[in-house]
Each structure stands twice: as structure tokens, then as C-alpha cells.
Amino acid sequence: MKEDFYKILGVDKKATADEIKKSYRKLAMKYHPDRNPGDKESEKKFREAAEAYEILSDPQKRAAFDSYGHSAFDNGAGGFGTGGFGGGRSNNPGAGFTDMFGDIFEDLMGGGGRRTQAFNSRGADLRYNIEISLEDAFKGKQTKIKFNCAAACQTCNATGSASKAGPERCSTCSGRGTVRAQQGFFTIERTCHACNGAGQKIKDPCNSCRGEGRVAKEKHLSVNIPAGVEDGNRIRLSGEGEAGIRGGQAGDLYVFVSIKKHQLYEREGVDLHCRIPIKMTTAILGGSIEVPCVDGVVVKFTIPAGTQNLAKFRLKGKGMMRIHTKNPGDMYIHAMIETPVKLTDKQQELIKQFAELETAGSSPESESFFNKIKNLFG
Predict the structure, then answer these.
(1) Is 245 domain-assigned?
(2) What CATH number is given to the structural domain containing 332?
(3) Burial letters for 118-130: b for 16+ Cβ neighbours within 10 Å, e otherwise?
């Protein structure tokens, strides 16, 4: 005995047409043979759902089913018939199901069942990678680039037509971009092979571009890299990408900037960090050092007496420029105290004398550390 159509679709007998359609759509997507190749059970459920939808989507057939059940479609008993499933007497058998299947097929193909290609579609966006120095990133740079891409065909004025007359309607699909084929009770819509879904054709293709309206060409551009640009920033040049097909809108060019690693500076946003070796005597007694800045200027900086290793000092306004502003960041000097090597006998003797003369409190950090060790383990 056949299962109730409402039960097959998982809806109530009072379900609206939209609820029935929604439920069928869900089941058809789940059990479609293309998604379950070789699965006989899924194929059976798909056909059952399709049959149930064909009946319940037709108001007259649904009314007959509500009154007489499956016997309403028993041909021998003078019933309606089930269209594509058992032959029938409907003037438009399976029409509702066929329309619905078109939507399902489109979903299964990711929209490909009814996808058409614009005759003059937009050109692709392009990416160009450029590497610059930190100094160029600081002050900005005007640079020239060249690359190969599709450019508008000058022979046919980007029409694709030798006579520049442009396209004409495709006779195969009558301009729709799709053609339909009947397979049993399915009506399948496919992209027109004659025009590739465009709905239009070029009667006399241009010899230079073969009807596409664009040709490969080396392009030269001047690019303005703004001061303060950061690693990974991109610069958009509108309309400088690939030319569109047959006069379609051109794509954009995106210039991606990368910055070379610098020998002295490490960048952190708009701030710069620089590790500078400091002589031990300078760190002890204090003194001045020369600090090279990213803008090319060398500044004198005073190191205070008693400077410790990794001490950090700020040079205000000596960092990177903020992009599109005139407010620079800061530069931070990290003191790297250098222990002298290859000492002479005289130097070693002086260091020993210095050690003997050290007083409490002259090395506060080491004294504090070893006091903690003594308290912990003493």
C-alpha cells in the first residue's frame, strides 16, 4: 500500500502551498541521485517525494487526493492519473513538478542550471606585488610598473566585430542564453552551447581579438606609494585591471606593498625600534652617542650615567610617518651594553681594582637578586 503523500513530504494536511513546496525542495536536495550516486534507497525517496509534490502542488489533484486517497489516481477507476509517473488525463501533467525541478537543479549545480554569461562582462581584478625599502615607505615613492594583461582591442573598438557593428541575437536560444531538453518527466535547462550563455553572438569576429574585444598587451603605469605605507597595505587603481569582454567594464588593479627587512630598525606601527651597542664605560659614566634616523638625519643623544642593559629611550617624532597625515611616530633606542673583550694586562688590573673598590648599592639589581636567592635557600 502506498504511503500517504502528506507523510512523505512531512507536512500537515492543512499545509499551505508554500510549506509543501519548501518541504519538497528540502527532500529533493537531500535525496537527489546526483548527490547520492548508486544509493537505491535515496533514489526511491526522491521519486516518492517528486510524485507527492506533483499531486499536492496541483489544487485539483490535491482535492481529489484529500477526498479519495490514492484511488483518485487509479487510471482503471477513472481517476486523474499521475502525469509523468503513470500516464494521465491532466492537460499539463507534472507542470508544477517540472517548474520546481528547475529550481532544484539550479541549486544542485550551484546556480549553473540557469547561469548565463554577460556578453560584455567585467574584466578581472589584477594583483601586482611590489617591494620597497623602509626609507621609501617613510617618505613615499612614485614608481613605474609594467605587466601583461588583457587590454581593449583598438582594431574593433572593443566591440569584437570586424565591422564594429557589434553583436546580434543568438538564433539557437533566441537570446535567452539557455536551451531546454526533455528527459522523461524532467525538463532540464542548460547553457546555450552556441553563444555560451550570452544570448548574443558576433557575426563577423575581429581578426585581432577573435571576437573577444580585447587583446594581450604590456601595460605601463605610474604608481604613487604614499608616505607611511605599511607592509601588506594595498593600493587600488580603479579601472587599471583587465579590460572587460567586448567593451565591458575594466577590472581594478591592486598593488600589494611589502617592505624589506631593515638592518637597523624594527617597525611597530608608526614607531621604530633600534638596538644600539653602548660601551661599558659610556654606560657607567654617561656620554653622548650618534643615532642615525630613518629620515637620513643623524642626531646626538645623551646616555645618562648608570644606564643599564636594555634600557629604552624615546626620540619623539623620529618614527614613521602616519599615512595621509603629517604626524610621525617615535623612535625607541634600546641600549645594548657591550662587555669589553681582549683586555690588556693593564686593563684587567684596573678592572680588578675597580671590583675591589665596589661599594654596597653600586649594583642594586644583582644585589637584590642574590639577596632573594639567599632568603629563599638560606
Answers:
(1) no
(2) 2.60.260.20
(3) ebbebbeebebee
